[in-house]
Amino acid sequence: MSAVALAPETPTLVLAPTDRAPAEARRFLVEQFRALDIADDFAGRLVVTELVTNVYKHVRIGHIVVRIFPDEPKNFVYVEVWDEGTVLPVVRPEDHGATSGRGLPLIIELVQEWGVRPLYETGKVVWVRWAL
Description:
Blueprint: E1 12-15, H1 21-35, H2 42-58, E2 64-71, E3 76-83, H3 103-110, E4 113-118, E5 124-131
Antiparallel strand pairs: 1-2, 2-3, 3-5, 4-5
């Protein structure tokens, strides 16, 4: 009988939608980047904070799930934030007088790609990908 090599499981963080969720997600990202030997975590901390904050502020139901994993052949890293909401994120036009709505445009400037995909159950995954 031969052994079958299994891909390692992607570490996952499950959070309650509270005001502590963004800080917990940042700590998780720092740990995962360290484990992946990624030295510069500045953009990652900003991205995960914004995505988790959006769920905490706008969805407020269910859990928040954070996953961070490399796309090794292409030298990219992915950050995914899952939630149980059905409302899709909206990129608003720039408004210098606004007190909110600036996070998603900032994320878009920092990453190569981003998107949203539905979950089979209820909810969605907002994902970002950028080069290391």
